[in-house]
Amino acid sequence: MSHNSFGHLFRFTTWGESHGPALGVVVDGCPPDIAISAPVIQRDLDRRKPGQSRFTTQRREADEVKILSGTFEDERTGGLKTTGTPIALEIQNTDQRSKDYSDIRDKYRPGHADFTYDQKYGIRDYRGGGRSSARETAARVAAGAVARLIIPGVKIRASLVQMGPHKIDYDNFDWAEVDNNPFFCADKTSADQWADYLDDIRKKGDSIGAVVEVVAEGVPAGWGAPVYGKLSADLASAMMSINAVKAVEIGAGIEAASFSGVQNADEMRAGDNAPYFVSNQAGGILGGISNGDPVVVRFTVKPTSSILAPRETVTVKNQNTDIVTRGRHDPCVGIRAVPIGEAMMACVLADHFLRHRGQTGREGPTGF
Fold first, then answer.
1. Whole-model pTM?
2. How far apart are CA 311 and CA 292, in angstroms?
């Protein structure tokens, strides 16, 4: 099995490599008669694309999306609509520089998937990692843009909340600041400080890790299913599938280990129309099923493995050598992971919305 597909009722399959002519995605399961357009998808792609600041790779890609199938412009209703058939989206690669990788064609890059791909398939694309490259995530973001159209009542936003050892101050958290700085950070003060910090990292030829927080508001109670269809499990799988992600937390996450039961319990009170939770340590999910609170997921991204600092490695013939990874690379890959995390959240929620509706015949909770 190739394992290039994700999801159940809302399912997408990505294709393409970092230095191939194009990459793209086929989205299957999108309901019919939903308004769609290339500019709507492009809006999300523009947030992820490289070369937008000195803090990301300087590879220049327009990431212009083309809709190849699954839509129809009906003169009776006006505008482009989904037809319920597979939606194929294509993104051309226009700024590949394969020559940057000629010096390392016979060397394994530490921290990359070079060695494991070679061991599994007996062949690897040394030009930027081929299929293992984070370039593949452009296709996911396109799929996520389609997923958002299925769940219009849900608002999904994300922020970089930690760079290296430096965490944001949640007292300064403001979603309006996310698109006002190159780090997609909701804390303006932290973003200003990170600029000098990452400049120093970049000039040293090094890289640094980060933590991204993704929040979905407007998710009704009832999405997700026990025991092996948990919303939390699918979200963890989705985030772990993103390149360089090494850990995932939901709600209080790892910090819950230091809480007492009294601290961790989200107490409930009777509201005007339905019960509500006084706190949200659960991150909006109980028993694998959404409880109506914001769904909160954080994921940790390791430092970019492609760095200018010399490192020890081996050749494909098992000979010791040193390596310097030249080319255009992100000093903190976590920055561009922000819109990718949003996309994967959208895909999981769209899938669970369709699964919930298919199983119960409802779109939300039973009511009171």
1. 0.94
2. 48
Give the C-alpha separation, 124 to 118, whole Å: 5
What's the token pair of residue 285? 């999910």
Tell me the pLDDT tens digit for each residue of 159-171.
999 999 999 999 9
Report whether 273 contacts 280 (CB < 8 A).
no
Phi, psi (deg, nearest 5) at residue 135: -60, -30
Q: Please work out, in degrees rounded to the nearest 5, the angle formed at the alpha carbon of residue 134 by the alpha carbons of 130 and 139.
A: 95
Sign of the CA dihedral running 338, 152, 223, 85: negative
Contact 14, 144 (CB under 8 A): no
Average confidence score pLDDT of the chain: 92
**Helices and strands, number each (H, E), in the chain:** 7, 18
Burial state string for 26-37 with b = 16 or more CB within 10 A and e = fewer than 16? bbbbbeeebebe
Structure-token pair, residue 315: 């050749």
Q: Tens of pLDDT along 6-47?
A: 999 999 999 998 888 999 999 999 999 999 999 999 999 999
Residues near 210 by beta carbon (within 8 Å), at least 6 away in sequence: 160, 162, 163, 164, 300, 301, 332, 333, 334, 335, 337
Name, in order, each residue with C-beta under 8 angstroms of 120's C-beta and a sequence gap of 6 or more. none
Output 153 or 368, whichever has higher pLDDT.
Answer: 153
How far apart, in whole angstroms, are the C-alpha atoms of residue 210 and residue 163? 4
| Signed CA dihedral, 143, 149, 151, 157: sign only | positive
Res. 55 pLDDT band, cuts 50 70 90: low
Q: Is 292 left (phi over 0), alpha (psi -120 to 50) or beta?
A: left
CA dist., res. 295 & res. 293, Å (int): 6
What burial class does residue 312 get, using C-beta atoms within 10 Å of its C-beta: 0-12 exposed, 13-18 middle, 19+ buried?
exposed
CB contact burial 262-295 (16+ within 10 A = b; e otherwise): eebebeeeeeeeeeebeebbbbbbbebbbbbbbb
